[in-house]
Write a structure and sequence with these properties.
Blueprint: E1 4-7, H1 24-34, E2 38-43, E3 46-55, E4 87-95, H2 112-125, E5 132-137, H3 143-149, H4 154-159, E6 163-169, H5 172-177, E7 191-198
Parallel strand pairs: 4-5
Antiparallel strand pairs: 1-2, 2-3, 3-4, 5-7, 6-7
């Protein structure tokens, strides 16, 4: 599916889905602080996807864990990572979400999430103040888990040059999702990977 991507603008608030945005000022604050709030994908005039971003903070903790507002930015369970510099964490991929938070599932699996990832990487390579991109890499093929958590499988990140800097078992996944399994997926779903993309050697 062909889409065009661009960073979110303050004027987009209330026009596109804003699950993780509280106000136009909230969007503006993220833009000013980290250079980008989120990446949007459009098919014509219709917004068909959004990838949220938040600057990595080793002290950040979402009080509600995986069911919190920005669990994708909570790396407490993986710390210490020993990273120095400025990194943006790749958050929820909201593909097919409408402003009323309903979802068009016909858009899933059509490459919109990958297009958003590619656009964020392109944007990142044009920045001088950001040292890298970080993400949680999940089980490949576990569609229910990926959709529930709004994340990508680790295999996708690897294709784009991300490296695993730590792998660990995360018991929060079973606590939240119970005992469902995706048929044919034998990989342990609690094994998650901290993935990192940099332009060169990490700043120490």
């Amino acid at each position: 599916m062909n889409v065009e991507c661009r960073p979110m603008e303050v004027s987009d608030f209330g026009v596109v889905e804003c699950c993780h945005w509280q106000s136009a000022d909230h969007v503006r604050n993220y833009q000013e602080k980290q250079g980008i709030a989120s990446m949007l994908a459009f098919q014509g005039q219709r917004c068909v996807g959004q990838l949220y971003l938040q600057e990595y903070d080793p002290a950040f903790r979402d009080p509600k864990g995986w069911i919190g507002h920005r669990p994708f930015a909570d790396f407490q369970i993986a710390e210490p990572l020993g990273l120095n510099g400025r990194f943006l964490t790749l958050g929820c991929y909201h593909v097919g979400w409408r402003p009323d938070w309903s979802k068009d599932e016909s858009l899933w699996g059509r490459g919109i999430g990958t297009a958003l990832l590619r656009a964020v990487i392109t944007w990142y390579h044009e920045q001088h103040a950001i040292d890298g991109l970080m993400s949680w890499g999940l089980v490949a093929g576990s569609h229910e888990l990926l959709q529930w958590m709004g994340q990508m499988p680790h295999t996708v990140y690897r294709r784009f040059g991300f490296q695993v800097i730590k792998a660990l078992h995360d018991p929060r996944i079973d606590e939240v999702l119970g005992d469902f399994r995706t048929p044919g997926v034998e990989e342990d779903r609690t094994l998650v990977r901290v993935m990192l993309l940099t332009k060169g050697p990490m700043r120490t």
